[in-house]
Amino acid sequence: MVQRICSALLAWQDRLVMETVTLLGLRILRQVAVTGSFAAAAVELGYTQSAVSRQMAALESAVGEQLFERGRRGVTLTPAAQIVLSGAGRALAELETTGQQLAGLRDRVGGRLVIGAFPTACSVLVPRAVAALRDGHPALTVIIDEAPTPVLLRRMSAGRLDVALVALNDESTDRDLKDLARFPLPIVGMHVAVPAEHPLARRPTVRPEDLLDEPWIVGVGGSGDPQFGPWPGIANPRIAFSVRHWTTRLGLVAAGLGISVLPGTMAVAVPPGVRAIEVDDPSHAERSSVLLARNDAGPRTRLAVRALLAQATALRAELVH
């Protein structure tokens, strides 16, 4: 009998805790852990500090433990709070995943989506767009086809891609773009990658005449690949190294062995020891980055176009500021 009464009391206590530990309280606890204070958590979440304090007091009451050590510089989590936070993190992650799956059911956008893009766009722009698509439409299966522009144009014509991000120049023909909708991308211009300790590294922009005496690390590639040699118009450039892969090229820059031309799509993804600087050269005729999709594109393709355009705009804002 006593055992049954104890079991009933424990079950009642568990129900009470579950009724008083709210999702809002767990989310606020997570934010307090990140920011280190109730005031900062309130600002991040858009609540008043008193509302945050009330939620945390209710959470402490629900679990029956002190969750915070208060000090002059904010709060620190107690061991009990760390335990609650660990469980809260798992619970909130599961709920967020469930919400995404339900969103996918509501919008009913699923299936296979193939995005083609030239290699330098696959470093930052395409991954960000794919992440946004996955977050909003978890039923989508996204495939990335990384290839040079001439290959992408052939695959687009053959119907193997839903959307293609290509770099077009004056040699592109109407035949290449027949029956395709075109969406110009707002991508910033070409940069140069310089070592972090280079005299030019602290400057926001450089001009071609600033680069005349620099050793260049240039690219080599297959037919149709942009080679990214020294800056166009520099007479008798000094070539220090010719390499195929961007990781090697930027590694050589980081080691202080030269500078390299860098597409704007990669300027936010340079490794430690490298700085990306925009080149102010009005005479430089760049390829235009364009999204291609079929004129009769379905909802999956339209979502991909919107995601890529949005991420390109955000990327430009990062680089401009």
From TrEMBL:
Keywords: DNA-binding, Transcription, Transcription regulation. The keyword DNA-binding applies. The keyword DNA-binding applies. InterPro entries: LysR_HTH_N (IPR000847), LysR_subst-bd (IPR005119), WH-like_DNA-bd_sf (IPR036388), WH_DNA-bd_sf (IPR036390). One of its GO terms (cellular component) is protein-DNA complex. Residues 21-78 form the HTH lysR-type domain. Signal peptide: none annotated. It comes from the Bacteria. Pfam families: HTH_1, LysR_substrate. One of its GO terms (molecular function) is DNA-binding transcription factor activity. Belongs to the LysR transcriptional regulatory family. This is DNA-binding transcriptional LysR family regulator.
